[in-house]
Structures are given as structure tokens and as C-alpha cells.
Amino acid sequence: MIQSSHTTSQSNPKPMVRTQMYVDAEIHRDLIMIAKAEDKSMAEVAREILKEGVAKRKNFDTSGKKVLQKLLDMHINVNDPYLSENIDHYLYGAPKKQP
């Protein structure tokens, strides 16, 4: 069972979700040391590190440009008047629904 609650703070006006996770002891010690050195809470340091890490991994294209380019690279017959009906043929090799 996952429990969560939403809140905001003056320093961070974005809605936040409360969550819990296990970290190994070394990471926990490092978080405490960094928080003390930066005069921040451990939670604030953890949020900053998570935000940086997620931003580095979040490199997926949501514009659809890569998908459209892949479709163009397939050299689909765009003169097919039944292109939308035959899309499975062009994408997956299924039989054409319309000639």
C-alpha cells in the first residue's frame, strides 16, 4: 500500500507529494553531511539531487519528430489514397485493407 499526501511550501510553491524510500547507509550519511555543509534540510538536498538526476535521464522526445522521421525513412507510398486504412501494411507488413 502506498500512502501519499500533497503539500506546498513557501520555498517551493509547486505541489509536492510525500513519499518514503530506502537508501543505503552511505548515501544517508552523505545526505546528512551535504545538508549540514549547505545549511539545508536533508529533504531539500535529496529533492535537488533527484531533480538533477531525473533531468539527466529525461531525454525522451515527446514532440513526435523522431517517430515521424522514422515513418519518412520507411519510404511509405504517400500517394496511397487509403494510407490511413493501410497503415498496418506499411508499419507491420500486414495485408492491405484497400488496394
Which features does this protein show?
99 residues; mainly alpha; Arc Repressor Mutant; 2 domains; two-stranded antiparallel ribbon; 2 strands
Structure description:
This protein is mainly α and 99 residues long. The protein has two domains: 6-57, Orthogonal Bundle (Arc Repressor Mutant), CATH 1.10.1220; 61-92, no CATH class. It has four helices and two strands, in the order ββαααα. The protein has helices spanning 25-38, 42-57, 65-73, 87-92; strands at residues 6-7, 16-17. A two-stranded antiparallel sheet has the order 1-2. A hairpin with an 8-residue loop joins strand 1 and strand 2. Helix 1 (25-38) crosses helix 2. The longest helix is centred in the middle third of the chain and has 16 residues, at 42-57. It is rod-shaped and about 70 Å long. It starts with 5 loop residues before the first strand and ends in a 7-residue tail after the last helix. The relative contact order is 0.06. The model has no long low-confidence stretch (mean pLDDT 84).
